[in-house]
Amino acid sequence: HQYCLAHLLRNLQGLAEHPGTTLDEAQKLGEIHEAIQSLFIDKHRMERGEISTGTWRQYGYHGWQFIEDLVTDLLESNPGKKVGRALRKIQKGWKHFKTYLRQPDYPMTNNPAEEALRSLVIARKLCFGSRSDYGRAWRAEIQSCVETLHRQGRSVIDFVAEAIRAHRHGNPSPNICNL
Q: What is the dihedral of CA 26, 27, 28, 34, to 10 degrees?
């Protein structure tokens, strides 16, 4: 598992802007937000070759220790119910936030996965989804097939035409795997 740091940033910002959050809590949440932003900055520096992977990891682990200390301090200050619950939930997933440090080629966000689902979500919202289990399963399988073909750089129309041709002639369906 890996948790998306961009989502964590968004959630911290929303929590800081919540009407039930005190000014002191919002300031401390802002410090946590800035510390996470610095993790992104260091990752980009490593990708540009400005710092080594080892240095980047060292900065990352030190950064996470600082963030953990900030969260612990905020929890010890008896925050409001909403802030406390959110921070305890974050604490439970520390190792999932740090996954990218073990593998430098792992992204810090799940943006590619979300981009792959975006067209499906938009289509579902525009046509109000499907009313049957069969329809939902069909849409999920078709979307998976379309996304796979796009990522392989293959034509969706050509694949569908080949599948129809194979079905009409009683041949096996074409393989979506690009072997």
A: 110
Q: What is the pTM of this model?
A: 0.62
Count of residues for the chain? Answer: 179
11-35: pLDDT as tens digits? 899 999 999 999 999 999 999 999 9
Q: Which residues of 29-51 are buried (b: 16+ CB within 10 A; e: fewer)?
A: beebbebbeebeebbeebeeeeb
H or E segment and range at residue 150: helix 133-152
If phi > 0 it is left, if psi is from -120 to 50 it is alpha, else beta; for residue 129 that is left
Per-residue pLDDT tens for 62-106? 999 999 999 999 999 999 999 999 999 989 888 888 877 877 777
Cα–Cα separations (whole angstroms), residue 75 to 13, 68, 70, 87: 17, 10, 9, 7
Q: Which two tokens stand for residue 100?
A: 């990218």
| Region class of 174: left (phi > 0), else alpha (psi between -120 and 50), else beta | beta
- Residue ranges of alpha helices (H) inside 18-80 are 23-47, 53-76
Q: What residue has token string 């080949």?
A: 162
